[in-house]
Specification:
Layout (H helix, E strand, L loop, with lengths): L8 E5 L9 H8 L3 E3 L9 E4 L3 H13 L4 E3 H10 L38 H17 L8 H10 L27 H46 L21 E2 L2 E2 L10 E3 L1 E3 L2 E2 L1 E8 L4 E12 L6 E9 L5 E7 L2 H16 L17 E2 L35 H10 L2 H10 L14 H19 L8 H14 L15 H29 L6 H9 L1 E5 L5 H12 L9 E11 L2 H5 L8 E8 L4 H7 L19 E3 L3 H5 L10 E10 L3 E4 L14 E4 L3 E3 L5 E2 L5 E2 L4 E3 L10 E4 L5 E11 L1
Parallel strand pairs: 1-2, 1-3, 3-4, 17-24, 20-21
Antiparallel strand pairs: 5-6, 7-11, 8-9, 10-11, 10-14, 11-12, 12-13, 15-16, 16-27, 17-19, 18-26, 19-27, 21-26, 22-25, 23-24
């Protein structure tokens, strides 16, 4: 028994001839391989097809999208008969009906095929060159089924932009018969027809001139590119679908795509700190099931600055996709190639960090923050001119051990990446902290438009197309991984609320990633944990378990777990907490008669942002859905009410909570929801009165007069739509953080 197919699993597609129905599967099995008919769960490593050529083309594309080599039965038979190993580089199934040996190099001075599956590239290039001249001379009629093929290509996220460039444009003539009638009317009709014809002729001339100018510009660019290129390497196609984890190396102001084979020896070309030659593009169209990205980078070799590369990578969001690397020995030629591809994908001229506008059917530029991936800190890059200094002894942290553990917990990169993946964010294209606050803000504006559209539809009007378009805009800004499935339309306020929570998480993770990155830069000066802590600008003093304050807080934790909240909480650590500048900000409220010590909970991945920036109020651009009493900061007097927002199951059963001194002043009391942007006249806060409250007999009055609620739950016997109390302030100066707790959840 031979082992030429050892470890190979062949997905059998199509019906084999009767003479080979048993022979081929038996030949595969006897040579160490396996067969399957289940693409999703069969563990296939290759696709073996025996179907008509038109169906074969579709299967080839689908298999390519999944990273599976496609083989034909003749080649498998050849391997079995000759007892030879598969040579996947030389014998991959092409789109044509016959097996074609892949050329070892493809010489090309442009990347018109950059959006085409590698298996299709040679065939499509030939077809395009053959058809262009013919179209100019005698535009052919649109082929039957072309629309259907375009839809199939769109569903597979195969760009078809280049294939449409030579399409003939026809304009219907005005129908003069519309003006038939009386002689007088006929005269007017002829006059109108003449004016219409003149206007049409003028418009046609302008359109023709515009097209001629565009064609001339493109031809000039192409001529310059060809003239400038001294030597151009063959485009290298590397289909990839699995997520590859590689170290992100930042040189200068930007990071080379880690999937690029030249990432270690090149940097992204930049003319200044804000003029960096890179573009990350995204395009989502729910209707056509498009959810794809396109990356363009102009690279320069570190050791040989006269060598430049254009790196393109494209595919469906969530996959590594396909790529192309072109060597160019001329900077101007490389710039021209970059600009041409950018214009082709966006229909806009390249202008570094311009605020580009999304054009229908084209890609949108995504603003990506350029910071090193905090999950993968750089290893030192050898510098021959500046040798590496001698290694020093590891620095020791100056922080209390409990504080060290806290900082490690709330800056855990794995938890942050897990959070991103749970939101279906593409962590390959938008690694930790790379999605800029500018992009997040734009997505928030789109969500607000969706919310306004839903809430404004009082008469049941069909708004599905508008929602589909806005949802596509949102997913274009926030790359979302759904595999080959269609992205869901955001069509109700509950989904709006969920998406807004994701944006809030992304903001806090962005802050955390920046702090983590800065601490990595300072690792030679101080311990990374100390650097992260110092970036927060806070003071933390551990409370001893036998201290009075610890015991008071412990009573509040034990007694204020609500009957309907099935949880047990155990204190791990308690710290006195003071944020820099907060005491001074709170000064006008320090003598307010109604000051309470209240609970606030949030995910562990949010606390680097909360401790650094404080508790914040949602911006005006954010949707209002989910805020029962408007956009403010929400607190509770029952710990379990706030503990539900810790989502401790996502962080190993542990969570972080805060106790703050909140100046409520005169409250506006409610027993049901009411939206407001600020306190009602004559009040300073809103008090959502719940049916169940901590027993006032257990209240603890602290030395400064603020009240900590530590009594057991009692029934207020007052009708309310709320089970438990909620307190909301609309001015962050009414908040002073006092204590931070680390808790175990059961």
């Amino acid at each position: 028994m031979s082992a030429i197919f050892q470890g190979k699993v062949f997905l059998m597609v199509g019906k084999l001839p009767k003479s080979q129905e048993q022979a081929i599967p038996a030949g595969i099995t006897s040579n160490g391989g396996k067969t399957t008919t289940d693409l999703e769960n069969g563990g296939a490593t290759h696709v073996l097809i025996s179907v008509p050529s038109d169906t074969r083309q579709k299967i080839t594309r689908e298999a390519s999208a999944k990273g599976l080599p496609v083989l034909i039965r003749d080649y498998i038979t050849e391997c079995i008969d000759a007892n030879k190993l598969l040579d996947e580089k030389d014998y991959l199934q092409e789109v044509s009906a016959e097996r074609v040996k892949r050329p070892s190099t493809v010489i090309s001075n442009d990347d018109d095929d950059a959006d085409v599956s590698p298996d299709d590239a040679p065939t499509k290039a030939v077809k395009r060159k053959r058809s262009t001249a013919a179209v100019k001379a005698n535009p052919p009629p649109k082929a039957a089924g072309a629309k259907k093929k375009k839809k199939k290509a769109a569903a597979m996220d195969i760009d078809d932009d280049d294939n449409n460039k030579d399409a003939a444009v026809s304009i219907a003539d005005d129908d003069d018969d519309d003006y038939a009638g009386s002689d007088k009317d006929a005269g007017k009709g002829k006059k109108r027809a003449r004016k219409t014809a003149e206007k049409k002729e003028k418009d046609d001339d302008e359109e023709k001139k515009k097209k001629q100018d565009e064609e001339k510009k493109k031809k000039d660019d192409d001529d310059k590119l060809k003239a400038a290129m001294a030597v151009t390497s063959a485009p290298t196609y590397t289909p990839k679908t699995s997520t590859v984890t590689k170290k992100i190396i930042k040189k200068g102001g930007a990071s080379v795509d880690p999937i690029c084979e030249k990432a270690d020896i090149c940097h992204i070309y930049q003319e200044s700190s804000d003029k960096i030659w890179k573009a990350t593009l995204n395009q989502t169209n729910i209707k056509d099931n498009n959810n794809k990205f396109y990356m363009i980078q102009l690279l320069q070799e570190d050791a040989n600055p006269n060598n430049f590369y254009i790196w393109n990578r494209w595919g469906r969001v969530g996959n590594d996709g396909q790529n192309k690397l072109v060597l160019i020995h001329n900077l101007e030629a490389a710039k021209l190639d970059f600009k041409r591809k950018f214009r082709d994908k966006t229909t806009q001229e390249w202008n570094y960090n311009a605020d580009y506008i999304k054009k229908p059917g084209k890609y949108m530029v995504i603003d990506i923050d350029e910071a090193d991936d905090p999950a993968k800190p750089d290893s030192p890059v050898p510098d021959l001119l500046n040798p590496e200094p001698p290694k020093q002894e590891p620095l020791k942290s100056k922080l209390h051990p409990s504080v060290q553990k806290l900082i490690e917990f709330i800056s855990d990169v794995k938890l942050m990446n897990d959070a991103l993946m749970s939101f279906e964010i593409d962590v390959v294209k938008c690694p930790l902290g790379k999605l800029s606050s500018k992009t997040i803000g734009k997505a928030e504006v789109v969500l607000k438009k969706i919310e306004d559209l839903i809430n404004g539809n009082k008469f049941g009007k069909n708004i599905s197309s508008e929602l589909e378009q806005l949802s596509s805009e949102f997913y274009t800004l926030i790359p979302t991984v759904v595999g080959m499935h269609r992205l869901p339309i955001i069509q109700d306020v509950n989904t709006v609320q969920k998406k807004q929570l994701i944006l809030d998480q992304l903001r806090n993770i962005d802050i955390a990633a920046t702090i983590i990155k800065d601490s990595s830069d300072n690792k030679l000066k101080e311990h990374p944990i100390d650097s992260k802590f110092n970036s927060l600008h806070i003071k933390l003093v551990p409370l001893e378990p036998d201290s009075l304050r610890f015991k008071q807080i412990q009573n509040a934790v034990i007694n204020t777990i609500a009957a309907t909240h099935y949880m047990k909480l155990k204190i791990v650590d308690v710290w006195e907490l003071e944020r820099e500048g907060e005491r001074e900000r709170f000064e006008p409220w320090k003598d307010n008669e109604n000051r309470q010590i209240l609970w606030h909970g949030s995910r562990s991945t949010n606390w680097m942002g909360i401790l650094s920036k404080g508790l914040l109020i949602a911006p005006p651009s954010a949707p209002v859905t989910g805020y029962m009493f408007g956009k403010g900061v929400y607190f509770a007097d029952m710990i379990s009410k706030s503990a539900n927002y810790c989502y401790a199951h996502t962080s190993g059963g542990e969570g972080i909570m805060m106790l703050s001194e909140v100046a409520l002043g005169k409250t506006f009391d409610l027993t049901g929801s009411m939206y407001m942007e600020k306190p009602q006249p004559g009040t300073q806060s809103t008090f959502g009165q719940g049916r169940y409250i901590p027993d006032p007999a257990g209240d603890i009055v602290l030395e400064n007069g603020a009240v900590l609620h530590a009594g057991r739950q009692i029934d207020r016997t007052k009708q309310s739509n709320l089970l438990y109390n909620e307190m909301i302030v609309y001015d962050v100066s009414q908040i002073r953080t006092c204590f931070l707790l680390r808790l175990k959840f059961n």
